[in-house]
Amino acid sequence: MSETLTKAAARNIFYGGTAFFFIVFFALAAQTVGYVTSDKSIKPVTNAVAAGKKVFEKHSCINCHSLLGEGAYFAPELGNVFVRMGGKEDPEAGKEAIKAWIKSQPTGIAGRRQMPQFNLSEKELDDLAAFFKWTSEINTQNWPPKVSG
Q1: Alpha-carbon distances, residue 122 vs 8, 25, 115 (angstroms)
Q2: pLDDT at residue 79 above 60?
Q3: Mind spelling out the 3-state secondary structure of the chain?
Q4: By C-alpha distance, which of 26, 143, 18, 34 is closest to 78?
Q5: pLDDT tens by residue, 112-149
Q6: Is the pLDDT of residue 2 over 80?
Q7: H or E stretch at 129
Q8: Coil/strand/helix, residue 66
Q9: 47-136 topology per CATH
């Protein structure tokens, strides 16, 4: 057996490896699409949820917070903030807790990161709470690993 890799062998390894990984990629993509389309727990997006997402984007919340693992890690994860605020047990209390938290910012506590005051209207706060409620109901397969975010 030759100790050197011939040009033909290298080409065959390249083409074989490329074909193998394309097949793996498409198989994983098909499995993911199948999983997502079969998940009946996903709630439809309401007008309030869409408006809440627009508020989230308008104020660039993703620049400090993460949402379902995406975004900055300067401030807490918001994908489960509705659950952390007690919304799983009492949705109305969770909604009011989120609104009160946003209204009370910045807290002025020394040594803590401060969220700016955005002076959101009641409708914007309701929409944002609806958006956080909707994101908390997504099956994230236990992400984030801790409820604390």
Answers
A1: 69, 46, 18
A2: yes
A3: CCCCCCHHHHHHHHHHHHHHHHHHHHHHHHHHHHHHHHCCCCCCCCHHHHHHHHHHHHCCHHHCCEECCEECCCCCECCCHHHHCCCCCCHHHHHHHHHHHHHCCCCCCCCCCCCCCCCCCHHHHHHHHHHHHHHHCCCCCCCCCCCCC
A4: 143
A5: 889 999 999 999 999 999 999 999 998 888 877 887 76
A6: no
A7: helix 122-136
A8: strand
A9: Cytochrome Bc1 Complex; Chain D, domain 2 (1.10.760)
Dist CA 67 CA 86 (whole Å): 18
The residue to which tokens 């011939």 are assigned: 6
Instruction: Say if residue 120 is exposed, middle or buried (CB neighbours under 10 Å; 0-12, 13-18, 19+).
Output: middle
pLDDT digits (tens, 9 = 90+) for 97-108: 999 999 999 988
What tens digit of pLDDT does each residue of 42-71 get?
Answer: 788 999 999 999 999 999 999 999 998 899
Write down the pTM of the prediction.
Answer: 0.76
List the structure tokens of 106. Answer: 């910045």
